[in-house]
């Protein structure tokens, strides 16, 4: 099997989507699928193909005039005369916009992978909805990363096959070292009062992530004096201003790569995911894989993984009082119970959200299409 894979998120890009794309491509190549990646990026020299194990990598530069970039890509792909079984659009505007056209020109079937924000944002953005709908209509198979998007797409396009495959993680490569624990202990001693409970907020902290909402709920809960927020990610100016007047104790750092976080996750008594809507955040598997419980909104993508009372404290999405109540319960739960929740979370991920399971599901469905 040979795939042509369009993406805006792949190494050396950063962030959760890039991590997921790297992981899925690598693992499918290990299963014997040949994958030629076309990465829409201005990092690296354009249209110089790097041969990789069981595939290749080509950067496609992004010009201010997108049509120019895609016409250059057209020249490149049509000149190659490579034969593919499928073209796969891994989320993002340019892959979803361009892959249906190249599917027709190259005479290959289209698969679209809907990730976190692709559907939620484009669906209610007039200029982008037609692009999204055209790609979905022309797809032979659609993959989603949470169950809610599968349901929503099936309601809109009942004749197109849609499959939900959860993110996965390799916990044998995701472990705390002695130096990680040492660094975490030093950081905690330096930055946090001894009795404070530490809540982590990690990732690209966009509006949909509900950070302002969470700060308001924390103030409403009347237990903010017992909390220290560890924030790792880029914050909007408005959120920084809200934190400044909230009198909540916090530490804030710029966005970090996955393995840098191993010195910060261990200090957390819980990780917060107060999103209004989301896909399946990698943070969910990363923190859970280190036996950390959650304070989280009860929405699909998150509730596809978490169970209330088992793995942490879930609250009705967007409900300030419910979130404040969850925070109150968290502060008043004994540490050994929190650790028990974390241990259940880790076991749950080991058994149900490994990258091995993720890869096998993709491989099986792709193989089925080949028959």
Fold topology:
Elements: E1 2-7, H1 16-30, E2 34-40, E3 50-52, E4 55-60, H2 66-80, E5 86-90, H3 93-106, E6 109-114, H4 116-123, H5 126-138, E7 141-144, H6 147-156, E8 161-164, H7 178-191, E9 197-202, H8 211-220, E10 227-232, H9 237-246, E11 249-253, E12 270-273, H10 282-288, E13 294-297, E14 312-315, H11 320-331, H12 335-352, H13 355-370
Parallel strand pairs: 1-2, 1-5, 2-4, 5-6, 6-7, 7-8, 9-10, 9-12, 10-11, 12-13, 13-14
Antiparallel strand pairs: 3-4
Write a structural description.
With 371 residues, the chain is α/β, with parallel strands linked by helices. The protein folds into two domains: 2-168 and 354-370, Rossmann fold, CATH 3.40.50; 178-352, Glycogen Phosphorylase B (Rossmann fold, 3-Layer(aba) Sandwich). The chain is 44% helix and 19% strand. The chain is built from 13 helices and 14 strands. The protein has helices at 16-30, 66-80, 93-106, 116-123, 126-138, 147-156, 178-191, 211-220, 237-246, 282-288, 320-331, 335-352, 355-370, and strands at residues 2-7, 34-40, 50-52, 55-60, 86-90, 109-114, 141-144, 161-164, 197-202, 227-232, 249-253, 270-273, 294-297, 312-315. An eight-stranded mixed β-sheet has the order 3-4-2-1-5-6-7-8, sandwiched between helices. A six-stranded parallel β-sheet has the order 11-10-9-12-13-14, sandwiched between helices. Strand 7 (141-144), helix 6 (147-156) and strand 8 form a beta-alpha-beta unit. Helix 2 runs parallel beside helix 3, helix 8 packs parallel to helix 9 and helix 8 (211-220) packs across helix 11. The mean pLDDT is 94.
């Amino acid at each position: 099997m040979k795939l042509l894979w369009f993406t805006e998120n792949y190494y050396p890009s950063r962030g959760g989507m890039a991590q997921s794309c790297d992981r899925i491509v690598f693992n499918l190549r290990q299963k014997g699928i040949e994958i030629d990646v076309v990465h829409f990026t201005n990092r690296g020299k354009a249209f110089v193909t790097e041969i990789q194990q069981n595939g290749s990598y080509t950067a496609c530069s992004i010009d201010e005039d997108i049509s120019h970039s895609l016409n250059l890509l057209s020249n490149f792909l049509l000149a190659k005369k490579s034969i593919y079984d499928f073209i796969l659009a891994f989320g993002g505007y340019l892959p979803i916009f361009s892959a249906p056209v190249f599917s027709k020109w190259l005479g290959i079937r289209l698969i679209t992978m809907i990730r976190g924000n692709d559907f939620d944002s484009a669906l209610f953005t007039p200029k982008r909805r037609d692009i999204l709908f055209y790609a979905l209509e022309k797809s032979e198979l659609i993959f989603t990363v949470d169950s809610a998007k599968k349901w929503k797409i099936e309601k809109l396009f009942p004749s197109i096959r849609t499959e939900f495959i959860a993110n996965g993680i390799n916990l044998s490569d995701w472990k705390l070292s002695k130096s990680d624990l040492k660094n975490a202990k030093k950081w905690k001693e330096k930055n946090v009062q001894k009795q404070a409970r530490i809540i982590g907020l990690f990732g690209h902290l966009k509006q949909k992530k509900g950070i302002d909402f969470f700060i308001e709920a924390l103030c409403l809960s009347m237990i903010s004096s017992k909390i220290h927020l560890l924030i790792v990610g880029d914050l909007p100016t408005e959120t920084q201003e809200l934190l400044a007047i909230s009198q909540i104790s916090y530490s804030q750092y710029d966005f970090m790569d996955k393995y840098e976080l191993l010195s910060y996750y261990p200090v957390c008594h819980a990780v917060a995911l107060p999103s209004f809507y989301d896909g399946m955040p990698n943070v969910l598997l990363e923190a859970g894989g280190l036996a950390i419980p959650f304070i989280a909104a009860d929405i699909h993508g998150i509730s596809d993984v978490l169970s209330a009372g088992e793995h942490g404290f879930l609250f009705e999405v967007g409900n300030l009082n419910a979130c404040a109540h969850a925070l109150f319960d968290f502060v008043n739960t004994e540490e050994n119970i929190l650790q028990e929740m974390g241990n259940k979370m880790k076991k749950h991920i080991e058994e149900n959200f490994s990258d091995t399971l993720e890869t096998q599901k993709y491989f099986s469905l792709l193989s089925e299409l080949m028959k």
